[in-house]
Every structure is written in C-alpha cells, then in structure tokens.
Specification:
The complex is a heterodimer of chains A (114) and B (107). By secondary structure, chain A is mainly β. Chain A contains no helices and 11 strands. Chain A is globular. In chain B, strands 2, 4, 5, 9, 10 and 11 form a 6-stranded mixed sheet that branches. A 5-stranded antiparallel sheet of chain B has the order 1-3-8-7-6, with no helix packed on it. Chain B is mainly β and 107 residues long. The radius of gyration of chain B is 13 Å and the shape is globular. Classes of the chains: A mainly beta (114), B mainly beta (107).
Chain lengths: 114, 107
C-alpha cells in the first residue's frame, strides 16, 4: 500500500492564482480530512469527508473548496490564493472516522503564496 | 471548539531520562490522540485513548476524563525520540490539536 499520498510536495503561487492540492489513499478509508499547519498554531481542520459525496467544513474552511467523488481521492482547491494561505497542508484518512481509529497522514504540501 | 493546551512547549533531556508531556482540553471529548511529528515533517499516530492508560514499548499514555487531562510518558529516552509530540482531542467528527511539544534528547 502507498498509504496517503499528496502532490505536489512544494508549490509557489502568486496572489489570486488558483490551484488544487491532491490527496489520495489506497486503504479504502471512508474518512478523509485536510489540515493546515502554521507556526505556533498547531494543526487546524479545513474540511473533512465521511464518504464519497459527503463533505463538511472544519475549523478554517474559508478560501478552500473540496469534493469527494471517489473513496480514494479528496482534492483541496484554492480558488484565489492569498498570502494568508501560506502554510503546510496535510491530508489524513482513517477507516470510518470513529474516535479510536488510527489517523494516517500524508507527507504534506508546503505552499507559499506571494 | 475544544481548546487543547500542551506543556511544556520545548523540552531538552539527556539520554535515559524519564520524560512527561502534558495535555489539557477544555471540553468533554470522545477520545484523545497522541501524534509524533518527525523532524522531516511526517506525522504518525502513537496512541488513541478514551480512558485509562495505554503502553507501546517505552511510551505510555494516560488520560483522566474528569480532570480533562492526558499525559505522554517516555521511559529511558533516546535521541531517536527527538520529535514534536502533538495531542489532539476528538469531539463530534472533528479533531482539535495542541501546538505540540518539541523534544530534543541529547546523547
């Protein structure tokens, strides 16, 4: 199993540009989520999904869109990038999102918005 | 929102020392997770617990639901334990994370 994969590893954007961060898992997990990690802030939940076709907002959803058309993929879209979105983004997954399941994290995407 | 606080923020220890990292949270939770973030950035899950105590090798995690507090202990610390340790509360369908404790173990 490849586990949770994320692409790209690093990206530089200009303010106003759009892009999609890719996340895929091959473990047949129902629950997938996106987090951002900023210095001194800890990880914060952006959006999550409990299964294909179902998504919901987390703590910091503004400026981001998600969709879940398949169990494997959970892309995160930045429609109009802003410098405040400079961060490290992690995707994670687990079987069903229940409380005592192991969360598997991707390697992260480092995004710089100029 | 569940406020999660960790202490200390930074910790330096000599190899072999017993280490304790503390986590407190503000709202009743369904479960608490401990994660380890390696210097390269990768994050792995260490423990998930909703009550009592769990042990994996030299790592022990405890939780006191009434006091809204959890601790992560490392016995006989080793330089390879150097990492950032993060606690996360699971409430509803969402995780709330502490800011992490950066541990450095010196040989």
């Amino acid at each position: 199993n490849a586990g949770v994969t994320q692409t790209p590893k690093f990206q530089v954007l200009k303010t106003g540009q759009s892009m999609t961060l890719q996340c895929a898992q091959d473990m047949n997990h129902e629950y997938m989520s996106w987090y951002r990690q900023d210095p001194g802030m800890g990880l914060r939940l952006i959006h999550y999904s409990v299964g294909a076709g179902i998504t919901d907002q987390g703590e910091v959803p503004n400026g981001y869109n998600v969709s879940r058309s398949t169990t494997e993929d959970f892309p995160l879209r930045l429609l109009s990038a802003a410098p405040s979105q400079t961060s490290v983004y992690f995707c994670a997954s687990s079987y069903t999102g229940l409380l005592l399941e192991t969360q598997y994290f991707g390697p992260g995407t480092r995004l710089l918005v100029l | 929102k569940n406020e999660v606080e960790q202490s200390p923020q930074n910790l330096t220890a000599q190899e072999g020392e017993f280490i304790t990292i503390n986590c407190s949270y503000s709202v009743g939770i369904s479960a608490l997770h401990w994660l380890q973030q390696h210097p390269g950035g990768g994050i792995v899950s260490l423990f998930m617990l909703s009550s009592g105590k769990k042990k994996h090798g030299r790592l022990i995690a405890t939780i006191n639901i009434q006091e809204k507090h959890s601790s992560l202990h490392i016995t006989a610390s080793h330089p390879r334990d150097s990492a950032v340790y993060i606690c996360a509360s699971f409430t509803g369908n969402q995780f709330y994370f502490g800011t992490g404790t950066s541990l450095t173990v010196i040989p």
